[in-house]
Design brief:
157 residues, 5 helices, 28% helix, alpha+beta
Length: 157
């Protein structure tokens, strides 16, 4: 009989430890009711403390560089900024045809500037945001030859 009580007590203690109740509960009484110890442990719902907003990671828009990201950057030009902050904007899928442009096209307020090399001569001053358009959006907005998409530099108004 004593052996059965020891097993039940060990099982009850293990259940309490796994739910985290033992750390919060006062010391166990000297006499323990065996029926309570052998009963199925109840799930204890823990209260989740909300994480302060300062600790939450900022969810970045993968198709947009916001003004704070442009201004806080320590990069000397926009090409360096894009390479560090959004490197996928400059990636290509490989050459699909010798006649097609397989580099991202850059636009400033709707005016075509060229390929990504033009970003090397530009800084972030006077820009409201930098957006990436996928190939579908770029083709709808600016016409064909946008297989990789486009980078749109949106000036401040």
């Amino acid at each position: 009989m004593l052996r059965m009580q020891d097993i039940a007590l060990t099982a009850a203690l293990a259940a309490l430890l796994s739910t985290g109740v033992a750390a919060q509960a006062p010391a166990a009484p000297a006499a323990l009711d065996v029926t309570a110890a052998t009963a199925a442990p109840r799930a204890v719902k823990r209260e989740e403390t909300p994480v302060p907003s300062a600790r939450r990671p900022v969810r970045r828009d993968r198709d947009r560089l916001a003004p704070g990201e442009i201004d806080s950057a320590v990069h000397t030009n926009l090409l360096a900024l894009v390479r560090v902050e959004r490197p996928l904007w400059l990636s290509t899928r490989g050459q699909t045809s010798p006649m097609l442009r397989d580099v991202v096209q850059v636009y400033y307020g709707g005016t075509w500037l060229g390929g990504p090399e033009v970003l090397q001569r530009m800084s972030g001053e006077g820009l409201r945001e930098i957006r990436r358009l996928d190939s579908r959006e770029a083709t709808q907005r600016y016409g064909k030859n946008h297989n990789v998409g486009a980078i749109l530099l949106v000036p401040e108004e």
